[in-house]
Amino acid sequence: MTEHPSTQFARPVEASPPAPGADGSRSRIALLLIVCAQFLIILDSSIVTVALPNIQHSLHFTAVGVQGVVTAYNVAFAGALILGGRVGDMVGRRRMFWIGMVAFALTSLLCGLAVNATMLIVARALQGFSAAVIAPTALALLTTTFPEGPVRNRAMSTFSVATVLGFVGGLVLSGPLVDWLGWPSVFYVAVPVGLVVAALAPRYVNPVPARRSRIDVLGAVLVTAAVAVIVIAPGQGATHGWASARFLLTLAAGLVLLGAFVLVETRAAEPLVRLGFFRVRTVRAANAVTLIGGAMNGAGYLLLTLYLQEVLHYTPIQAGLAVAPTGVANVLLGRVAGKLVTRFGVRTMMTVATAVGALSIAALALFLRPHQSYGVLVVPIVLMGMCFLMTTVSATIGAVAGVSNAEQGLAGGLRQTSLQLGIALGVAAFVSVAASRTASVSGGAHPMAADAALVSGFQVGLLALAAFALLAALIAWAGFRPARSRV
């Protein structure tokens, strides 16, 4: 159904989906809008990193306090994902997608206009909540627009490319934007794109009939708080020690909240999350692989960029450009990734991608030297990025396969939550491993000795990450094994 241009910013009304013979060009535009939305919300989780020193100086943050600019977004994003996906299932996904895009554009503008630390932290939290509305509804809209099979696999491939490119794009774009236009520009970039997506969504994105029901408010509060606290816990462990009271108490609080959520859901007449959903073996396996893939992605790129800047003394722009070939390779791979999953199956491609990804991370670790040429590093860097993409494609397809249309928002929210938890866990745990190793072997004040200690730390951190990645290969192979026939 095409709406008059004057109603493009009007709140969209859910209706019945169009007939199966809908115009293919309309579906392609819908996919483009969904992909743009996914790219933006992932971009904004990484693009701010390089801008932090400028933000700290401009808004008078403390050295520790400025990390709240990252934490506020990530905690709000991860914490509200399941709620965002489920509300989309209940009240209409296109409506929630539109609301989320408008809110994301406006909160991005608010971030750029921030005049003090408190205003920026609050704006980043609101931006994270907006992203939590967009992410699961975008994935659910994609799965309900394209039927399960080769067509959906190709669309999923494009969606996954946007996820990976959003993370890499943040690393590449942030340096030039900060140098040329100042730190607010890293937030302003999302404003026009977000508003254009919001304007076109009512015209091109298929509406899906909502499953009208009461929202389980208590369950929503508990699951949002539980995930948010659990996301915070790894950072506490990395900062204060994994045996510290802060880490243990934060983790315990998150688990207690999660337990309370499960108890409430078992007794709710209309639960926010149907707990039987988690009994599906492939859903559990896909989300476990997604979590580990998030750790591979977040920790792998962060350890690499730290090595490039702290050991090889690359500027932030040079470090961003060093990972740019990964983006080019993933665009090319994205054209065939869905076809590969269709041809060889989710189980095979997920297992191969995670196993080869683990080997590429290990190879990168072994190539690190105090003085190393970029030409030696580029092959494992590109291979690592391509494996991240194939893992994302296959795990995303696996996470939503066989799920009813009524629960696609829940499936999308759970998948995105697993990814964010993985990034938080990976960054905190494996950077902590690297830092501990560096501290244990550093013993000289000479710059060369310091570089050697840093390299040793980064190597151990990457090798530990590679071992963790191998666990994903085992989960993929076991979790997607064919069901045994009963005689």
UniProtKB/TrEMBL annotation:
Residue spans crossing the bilayer: 29-52, 64-84, 96-115, 121-143, 155-173, 185-205, 217-235, 247-264, 285-308, 314-333, 345-368, 374-400, 421-440, 460-480
UniProt KW keywords: Cell membrane, Membrane, Transmembrane, Transmembrane helix, Transport
Domain Major facilitator superfamily (MFS) profile: 30-484
Gene Ontology MF: a single term: transmembrane transporter activity
KW Transmembrane helix (keyword) present: yes
Localization (cell): Cell membrane
InterPro entries with a match to the protein in the record: MFS, MFS_dom, MFS_trans_sf
GO cellular component assignments: plasma membrane
Signal peptide coordinates: none
Annotated membrane topology: Multi-pass membrane protein
Protein name per UniProt: MFS transporter
